[in-house]
Each structure stands twice: as C-alpha cells, then as structure tokens.
C-alpha cells in the first residue's frame, strides 16, 4: 500500500465519531486546488467540472482525539497533516492518519428549526428556532421567566433559585 505524508485543508462533513482504543474518525471534504472558475454548462444546468474529494481521517493522538470529540463540528474548516494511504479498493475514500490538527475557521452555529425542550436540573427550557427568547419553567410547571437569549438561561435560573428556592 502506497502512503504519502501530506497537509490538506477541508471541511468537516459530520460530527467526528469515537473509535476503538481512544481513536476518533471523521470525513473531510476537500475542494480541488485547481477548481476551474468557469463551470461547464450541461443542459442549461451549471455543473462544476471537478468534484469535491472526501477523505476519511482518523487519529489516535489523545490531544487530537479530545479536540475532535469535544470541539469540532460539521462545517469547521481544518488543516490536517498526516500520512495519506491510498484507498483499499476502487470507489472507496482515501485514509489520512492525522498527526497535526489546526482549526482554520469554525462553521456556522446550526439554527434550530423546530421546538426543542431541554432540561437544566430542576428546570425545563424551550428552544424555538423562530425566536431568540427562551421560556424557562420549573420541572413542576411553575413559570420561572423568559431569558432574552440562550446565554441568559443560567442567570435567570440562578435568580429564580435565590428568589423562589426552585422546586427543591
């Protein structure tokens, strides 16, 4: 099997997954460096003439694994350096064993499009993708207040516990 030491920049495709023996794996989407600015029109549809490449990446370095599993999200732009191995079979993606990881840019924070309930100890909060405000209730259903944004939830809960004692 032919291997090569290389450095590539690409976007994380999905949340990195833990693997066996303290490893982590993720797919990196790489746009070709020689991407032709002019696209080739096909039946009145513009199609890029060079497709993106997907490289499956793994790492067993504990520092890199920790960062992958706790800090990397889909859409993050990474620079990875390591050993690239040819695909095991035609149609499979190349494999890169990462030795150095650098975050070049973070992806956009996903916007909630549906209503989501979340629990904060004795409190329940409602995230609604249509509103930036967050209603907060105690687990027993008592109104605690309306946080102006998700960052204000902890302050609102702390205030409610000092004034009302929470549900405890």
Structure class = mainly beta
How many extended strands?
12
Catalogue the unreliable spans: 34-47
Shape: elongated
Which percent band covers the strand fraction? 35-45%
Order of helices and strands: EEEEEEHEEEEEEH
Strand line-up of the largest beta sheet: 1-3-6-8-7
| H/I helix tally | 2
The chain-level mean pLDDT equals: 80
Helix percentage = 10-25%
What radius of gyration results from the CA coordinates? 23 Å
Distance between the termini: 62 Å
The multimeric state of the shown protein is single chain
The main sheet comes to: 5 strands, mixed, barrel
Describe the structure.
The protein is mostly beta strands and 168 residues long. 13% of the residues lie in helices and 43% in strands. The protein has two helices and twelve strands. The strands form three sheets. Strands 1-3-6-8-7 form a five-stranded mixed beta barrel. It has a four-stranded antiparallel β-sheet with strand order 9-10-11-12, with helices on one face. A two-stranded antiparallel ribbon has the order 4-5. The chain is elongated, with a radius of gyration of 23 Å. The model is unreliable at 34-47 (pLDDT under 50).
Highlighted features:
2 helices, mainly beta, 43% strand, 13% helix, 12 strands, 168 residues, five-stranded mixed barrel
Can you summarize this structure?
The protein is built from 2 helices and 12 strands, in the order ββββββαββββββα. The protein has helices spanning 62-71, 153-164; strands spanning 3-12, 17-18, 24-30, 40-42, 45-47, 53-59, 77-85, 94-105, 116-120, 123-127, 134-138, 143-147.
């Amino acid at each position: 099997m032919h291997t090569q030491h290389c450095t590539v920049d690409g976007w994380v495709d999905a949340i990195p997954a833990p693997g066996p023996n303290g490893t982590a794996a993720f797919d990196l989407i790489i746009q070709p460096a020689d991407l032709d600015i002019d696209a080739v029109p096909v039946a009145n549809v513009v199609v890029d003439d060079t497709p993106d490449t997907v490289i499956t990446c793994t790492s067993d370095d504990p520092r890199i694994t920790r960062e992958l599993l706790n800090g990397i999200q889909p859409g993050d732009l990474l620079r990875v350096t390591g050993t690239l191995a040819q695909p095991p079979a035609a149609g499979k993606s190349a494999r890169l064993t990462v030795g150095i990881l650098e975050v070049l840019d973070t992806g956009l924070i996903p916007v909630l499009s549906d209503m989501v309930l979340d629990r904060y100890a004795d409190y329940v909060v409602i995230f609604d993708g249509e509103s930036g405000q967050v209603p907060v209730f105690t687990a027993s259903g008592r109104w605690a207040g309306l946080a102006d944004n998700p960052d204000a939830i902890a302050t609102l809960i702390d205030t409610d516990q000092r004034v009302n004692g929470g549900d405890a």
